[in-house]
């Protein structure tokens, strides 16, 4: 049976690539009782310190209602703390606790080791090209700003 598709299934390939990379990361996350979503939250907070929940949702790619549940579990487990933004009481800000930051530091070592292996395997230039192409695809698919 023939299909009208000429190009490969890019969304599936991107998901397959993500899962392939995460296969190296996930066991370390699970060993520390973290889900993929919890790790993405900790990574955002590890990079930015205190962040409002909107920024965490955008950068961790978690929808607002789901983020509320993720943050509740993380707060219960002593990984993050939430409070009203002192400058704008309508907003909530999130910060990793000392325990959360220790996990970020510990897990980042294994993750950076894996990225170094990828860089060595692909070559520094090809990995840089991959990052640039992915950034370009992301920019290309953004709605145009007036």
CATH class: Mainly Alpha
Main sheet: which strands, in order across?
1-3-2
Question: How many discrete domains?
Answer: 1
- Coarse shape: globular
Structural class: mainly alpha
Proportion in helices: 55-70%
How many strands in all? 3
Indicate the CATH topology.
Answer: Arc Repressor Mutant, subunit A
Radius of gyration based on Cα positions: 18 Å
Number of helices: 6
Order of helices and strands: HHEHHEEHH
Task: Walk me through the structure.
With 146 residues, the protein is mostly helical. The chain has one domain (10-140): Arc Repressor Mutant, subunit A, CATH 1.10.10.10. Helices cover 67% and strands 8% of the residues. It has 6 helices and 3 strands. It has helices at residues 10-31, 36-48, 53-60, 64-76, 98-122, 124-140, and strands spanning 51-52, 80-84, 92-96. It has a 3-stranded antiparallel beta sheet with strand order 1-3-2. Strand 2 and strand 3 form a beta hairpin. Helix 1 (10-31) crosses helix 5 and helix 2 (36-48) packs across helix 5. The longest helix is centred in the last third of the chain and has 25 residues, at 98-122. It starts with 9 loop residues before the first helix and ends in a 6-residue tail after the last helix. The model has no long low-confidence stretch (mean pLDDT 93).
Summary tags:
single chain, mainly alpha, 8% strand, Arc Repressor Mutant, subunit A, globular, 146 residues, 67% helix, three-stranded antiparallel β-sheet
């Amino acid at each position: 049976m023939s299909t009208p598709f000429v190009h490969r299934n890019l969304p599936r390939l991107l998901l397959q690539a993500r899962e392939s990379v995460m296969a190296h990361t996930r066991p370390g996350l699970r060993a520390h009782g973290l889900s993929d979503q919890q790790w993405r939250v900790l990574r955002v907070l590890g990079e930015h310190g205190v962040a409002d929940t909107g920024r965490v949702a955008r950068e961790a790619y978690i929808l607002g209602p789901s983020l509320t549940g993720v943050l509740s579990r993380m707060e219960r487990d002593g990984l993050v703390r939430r409070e009203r933004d002192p400058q704008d009481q309508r907003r909530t800000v999130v910060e990793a606790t000392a325990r959360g930051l220790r996990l970020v530091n510990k897990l980042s070592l294994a993750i950076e080791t894996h990225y170094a292996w990828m860089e060595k395997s692909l070559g520094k230039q090809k990995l840089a090209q991959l990052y640039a192409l992915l950034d370009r695809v992301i920019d290309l698919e953004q709605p145009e700003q007036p």
